[in-house]
Each structure stands twice: as C-alpha cells, then as structure tokens.
Amino acid sequence: MKDPPAAGSTVSQPAGANGRGSSRRTSKLSGKTWRPWLLLGPALIVLGGLLIYPLYRVVALSLQEFGLRQLVTGETQWIGLDNYREVVADPLLWRVALPNTVIFAAVNVALTVIVGTLIALLLAKVGPWTRGLLTSVIMVAWAVPAVTGTYVWVFLFDPRAGVVMRVLDTVGLVDPDTTNWFTERLPFYAIATLNVVHHGFPFVAITILAALMTLPQDTMEAAVMDGAGSWRRFWYVTVPLLKPVFAVVTILSTIWDFKVFTQIYLMPGGDGTNRDVLNLGTWSYITAISQNRYGLGAAIAVLLTLLLLVITAVYLRALFRQDEI
After folding, report:
1. Is CATH 1.10.3720.10 what the domain over 103-288 is classified as, yes or no?
2. pLDDT tens digits for 101-151?
3. Among 58, 20, 79, which residue's Cα sits nearest to residue 299?
4. How far is the C-alpha of 264 from the C-alpha of 295, rounded, in Å?
5. Are 244 and 177 in contact (CB under 8 A)?
6. How far apart are CA 246 and CA 117, in angstroms?
7. Domain extent listing, the chain
8. Are the beta carbons of 271 and 291 closer than 8 angstroms?
9. How far is CA 280 from CA 102, 161, 185, 243, in A?
10. Model-level pTM?
11. Hey, CA dihedral for 13, 14, 16, 20, is it positive or negative?
C-alpha cells in the first residue's frame, strides 16, 4: 500500500490530462455558443424571408423610375435618389404628412400607455373572478378587426345619422347641417385617436397586469411599512420594477401607431380626397396605387421606416442611459 504524498509535494498527473480537460471545456463552451443560434436558426430564416427580402425590394424599387408603363413592359430605369429628392422637396411632406404622422403617433402612444396602465392598476385591485370577467371584456376591443372598428367609429360620428352627432344636436351643442367631423384635420385625427387608443389599450393593460401580478409582495409591504402612500409606491417602487415592461409596450405601440393605415384610410377623406389628413402611410399607398408611381411611393415608405428606426433607437438609448445612472 502506497503512502500518501508528503505535505507540500506535487502530485504528478498523467501526461495529456490537462490537455484533455481543457479540450472538454472548450468543447462545452463552443456548444453553448452555437446551440442558441441553432435553435433560433429556423425562425431567423423565416423572418429573413418574410422581412428582409421585401424590405430589400422596396429599397430597390425606391431607386427606380417605376410606373404603369414599367409595370407593363417590365423595363425599369435606375434613377438613384431622385425619388427621395422629390419627396423631400414636396411641401406636402413638411406641412401635412410628417406632422400628422409624428404628432398623431406621439399622442396615441402616450394615451395608449396611460390608459392601459390605469386599467391594469384597476384590474390588479379587484378580485380574481371580477378580474377575469373584465379582462375578457376589454380583450374584445383588441380582437375586433381594425376595419370593423373604424366603420363603427365613423358611424358614431356620422354628420347625419351618427349617435354622437344626434346627442350633441339634442343638447344644442352642434348643428348637423354645418358640422362635419371629417373635413378638418383636428377633429378627424381626434376621432382616429379614439379609434386607435380603444383598439390598442387592451394589449398594454393585459401586459402591465401580468407584470403587476409578478411583483414581489414583500417589497410592497416594506414600502407600506415605511409610510409610502399609493402614489409614492407607484412611482418609486412599481414603475422602476416594471421599467422593462413599459419599454416593451412603448416600443411596440410606437411601431404600431407610426404605421397606422387602416384607421386613417377608411375614414371619409382619408383615401386622398382630403389631402390635409394624409399621413406617411396613406400618402405612400395613394402615390403608389392611385397614381401608379410605385417608385415614389416606395421612397415614402422607406422614409417612414427610417424615421421609425431612428425614433426607436433614440428611445432605447435614453432608456439604457437611465439604467446606467
């Protein structure tokens, strides 16, 4: 029987043992590196086919003179940035389409997040049975197609047969013979805002509610014991804990509200007959489809995409800076 090695002595190991251990560790690390990409690969390929290629085609189309004649003959002419120069030089971009798009999206994002958060806080306070019932009810607004919802809001504010107009006429606030909500920019977009917020707040409410249900109760109880009221608990405990969730719903709402099309196009005047209510989405569609200027319409769509990417990047940068402070 061999004696144990003396204290301080070095135990010899078989040659190559360290090499084999290092090789196994390297293999494990490499497996951890490529395995997530292998799992994500099919989804990335599908997304690449559905998003990247169409985006490439739109960008390529925006650099060409492509109209009805080119659509028939199949022969296109490369004109570089001429379509973009025409869009930027058009006063309609700066006076109508861009302000309508940016202001409308900003107002809708703010209202959607605020209303959705308030509804989520209310649902978190009620009992489970009531919460389930109310959640099912508000999800109906989200499930209704945008086309159906838009026609409902148009009917409500119809100058002749609308319910809202009749009520206001009964109390003497408006005259149906001289009032049309859809001919002026401000009331037009006020109705569109009601439509978009009504359709979008359920997603925010359900998402925030799910996050509220996961908050640690001991943290809330500690805040109550420290004497913090409801308002202070919300701003100094709930909001910091839910900041990642608020970031997600804000970014998604920004993307959705910047590219609103159906709710504008289906309203009276939104199809191009009233140019004062055009946004970038409807302007791009009308230019391409109604005027058969597909290259110019694609250029407008690319500008809308770039604007959305810039705004999202600025928001994320500001959010990350707050986390670093």
Report:
1. yes
2. 999 999 999 999 999 999 999 998 888 898 889 888 888 888 889 999 999
3. 58
4. 22
5. no
6. 9
7. 103-288
8. no
9. 9, 31, 15, 30
10. 0.80
11. negative
